[in-house]
Amino acid sequence: MMKRLLSVLLVIAVVLPASAQRRSSTVQKVKKPLTQSAYDEWKSITFRQLTSDGKHVVYTLNPEDGDGKVIFQDLSKNTQFSVERAKNIQLSADSKHAAFLIQAQKDSLTQLRRLKKKKEEMPKDSLGIFDFTTRSTTKIPQAKSFKIPKKAGGWLAYQSESPTGETNNGEGKSKSKKISDENGYPLILKNLADGSEKTFAYVKDYAFAENGSGLLFMSSGNDADVKAGVYWHDLTSGVTTQVFEGHPKHKYKYLSIDEAGEQIAFIADIDTTKALLREPKLMYWKKGNGAATVLADEKTSGVPETWLISENYNPNFSKDGKRLFLGTNPQPILKDTTLLPEEMVQVEVWHWQDDYIYPEQNRRVDRERRKSYLAVMDLESKKLVQLSSPEIAEVRIDAEGKGKMALGVDDREYRMLRTWDISSFSDLYSVDLGTGKSNLIAKQVKGNARLSPDANFVYWYSSQDTAWYSHHFASGKTVNLTKDLQVSFGDEENDLPDYPSSYGLAGWTLNEESLLLYDRYDIWKVDPKGEKAAERLTKNGRENKTTYRYERLDTEERFIDLSKPMLLSVFDEKNKDAGFARWTANSANPTILVKSAHRYNLIEKAKEAEFLLYTRENFQEFPDLYVADHGFGKPKKVSTANPQQSDYLWGTAEIVTWRSLDNIPLEGILYKPENFDPNKKYPMVIFYYEKFSNTLHQHHKPEPIRSAVHRTMYVSNDYLIFVPDVVYKIGYPGESAYNAIMPGVTYLIDQGFVDEKRVGIQGHSWSGYQTAYILTKTNLFRAAEAGAIVANMTSAYGGIRWETGLARTFQYEKTQSRLGGTLWEKPMLYIENSPLFYADKIETPLLLMHNDADGHVPWYQGIEMYLAMRRLNKPAWMLNYNGEPHWPVKRENRIDFQNRMMQFFDHYLKDAPMPAWMQRGLPATEKGIRQGLELLEN
Length: 938
Known about the structure:
Blueprint: H1 2-26, E1 43-44, E2 48-50, E3 56-63, E4 69-74, E5 79-84, E6 86-91, E7 97-102, H2 106-114, E8 126-131, E9 136-140, E10 143-147, E11 155-160, E12 185-191, E13 197-208, E14 214-219, E15 229-234, E16 240-245, E17 251-257, E18 263-269, E19 281-286, E20 293-296, E21 307-309, E22 316-317, E23 323-330, H3 358-369, E24 373-378, E25 383-386, E26 394-396, E27 405-410, E28 426-432, E29 438-445, E30 450-451, E31 457-462, E32 467-472, E33 477-480, E34 505-508, E35 515-518, E36 523-526, E37 535-536, H4 541-544, E38 546-550, E39 566-572, E40 578-583, E41 591-596, E42 599-605, E43 611-617, E44 624-629, E45 636-637, E46 651-659, E47 665-673, E48 682-687, H5 711-716, E49 720-724, H6 733-750, E50 754-764, H7 766-775, E51 783-787, H8 793-796, E52 800-801, E53 806-807, H9 809-813, H10 827-832, E54 846-849, H11 860-871, E55 876-879, H12 891-910, H13 916-920
Parallel strand pairs: 48-49, 48-50, 50-51, 51-54, 54-55
Antiparallel strand pairs: 1-3, 2-3, 3-4, 4-5, 6-7, 7-8, 8-9, 10-11, 11-12, 12-13, 13-14, 14-15, 15-16, 17-18, 18-19, 19-20, 21-23, 22-23, 23-24, 24-25, 26-27, 27-28, 28-29, 30-31, 31-32, 32-33, 34-35, 35-36, 36-37, 38-39, 39-40, 40-41, 42-43, 43-44, 44-45, 46-47, 47-49, 52-53
């Protein structure tokens, strides 16, 4: 009996742990809500690239605050190698090496700054060189910069900040010649095949020929064997040639090499005096010649009288090396250096007929002082032709610089219009590159005109009549390319008091035979001469509400070859699914290759292999990297950037539809908590701007965003977030927002899962204005945050956007504010749309945020609203992050704003304790010392 009992107990002892294990395996993982502390856990992929052979993918995983790393992944073996703290990553054209700088640890840098260490005492970057064959990394300390040839492998050049690179005359270091930005640094040329190196002293700038044939550099020289000047090092022969011998005080700029690696040009200032008027020279050298010579200066025929060669224009060769483009400029206005500062008059004269208003002039002053006018030198005849001038200041050449004609653009007549019509107009001219002669093509064009790849045509979208035009240089004919087509090539949903913008274009087909244009959905093939009928290449886009767009796989592609398949992106407007399709000639419809409930972003095709690198994302799925073949077959996920996401409560996103009070069908996105219970009542926050519904599948990783409620953060903490689309009626932007948003909110309340007494609303800038307006019309919302608002359109109309110097007038008459008239034509609309005048109607507690360095919306607009609420004794707070622009940029400020905004909504929508800053404010005596974030007992 005893033996039997023991055996039963033994069985129990064996069985119980096994069954317990089975039960534990079925226990669901307990997830936690996101908090502000989660920001540091999330990584971003800020660099991603395939090697040319498609065998490796290189990408970074970087936290927002902290040290990241670069990963080198072998796609066939699925092995990974990584290097910490890499930046400025470049891959060699031969797929054998990657080069990058390695930063010091962020914590150590922070600590040294706390110790107030000088710049020269701070640790320097190192150079990292990863070998894809040996999978090893070479690290070189104290590297300042590096470069590799764009289209060749095997070579790398880097500058060293090591003090050992200073002059040594055999008797120790020279105290008179230190390495510095002024004197230059050692330049080390490294042969990546055998590891050998060659050093050049006191180099100030350097450049590789794209094809890897040579290295060009300028040196200030040393005290011994290296003379100051410009040098060419032939990478094949190993011979270094001094192409120009100069003086240590000479200044050189803009090292330029032609595509063949046989010609160089640079700008030289060889005047060693202290003359205020500098006279730069354009220097030129060709392989096989002796020294570089002056190709052009102020005395050269073709340079306008009293003009100079510009020191602010980088000379560049045409692709075939037959032309050299350069800049010229009138002699600058010089200051009287005999006057003391207190003797100088500093006054601005604001003339009513200035082409640019004075604040914009101030923002443009450096650009204007450095302004260059395009000229071209024929390198065979040495004839210089001036192309642009103060009358036709902008001249555009084709990408390869080989065309006979250029495009001139003159907007002088219309510059005053910028004050109230920011898109304005311009006149178009043909410019002959052989003579500089110009002829008018078109007057008062409202659109961005461009040259065709071979410069046989000028083409542009005219927003006034939503049509595409082309001008054929040879025949002189201008053709409306889309006049007979029964679809719009302008934005069909435009609700601005201005002409609609275009949908863009894919490009030109071979030999400039046709132009591929976009309507809302499809791709159209049109004849630039207007002789052949247009053809819709994607034949089912509009019928299926599917948008097709061309994906350019070759970054150097000039023409689209329609005899070959085209890869197209696909977006389904109905359900927001996306993907890719293949179009082939004579096909009835594009063939879908991949399509799903995601957003896709094609990053690149490997240059020498049929591999594609892309991302895929939706609300739940981070945009990790994928690779696939050219037909999106055999897709493979490459990265898993944020596996910790599975530890947190997330949520879902879905489309909601309703009708506005104007009976317009609308869409919006509703974000729900992960464990959403339809029988439960949830607090809800509305966030919006204009239209977001097409971003349904966008991922929102935890990060301290600058000006909006973080959708993921809030739904993780049991909020609903509703993002409604808004459409506008000209003259009534505030009412339009109310009419769009309110029925969407009440529709969701009617579903039964929204706590109608705990609904908040939040917006910034344009949506901040709309929020303030809506609060004057309803008391439905229990709390509201509005950032960088326009409170008073009558005063904002006459304001300045200080970041650009532009007048704010255009915004009200033509663009986002949508009033469609001047203050004097429609004064009541300015008042009716200004929440300031109806602030007495607001009953909702209001959190404002407006920073004192806001260059978009003058911060006095926020002050006007704050003072109105204060005078009316209504609960209001205003956050001003000192020195910050339109939104907090500094990371600590962004975190602080997100923290305060969530505390604000938690208090009003969840009955959480009030934080100290809300109860008593934050006195100026405590600013920067206390934050008042502690929660108080109810």
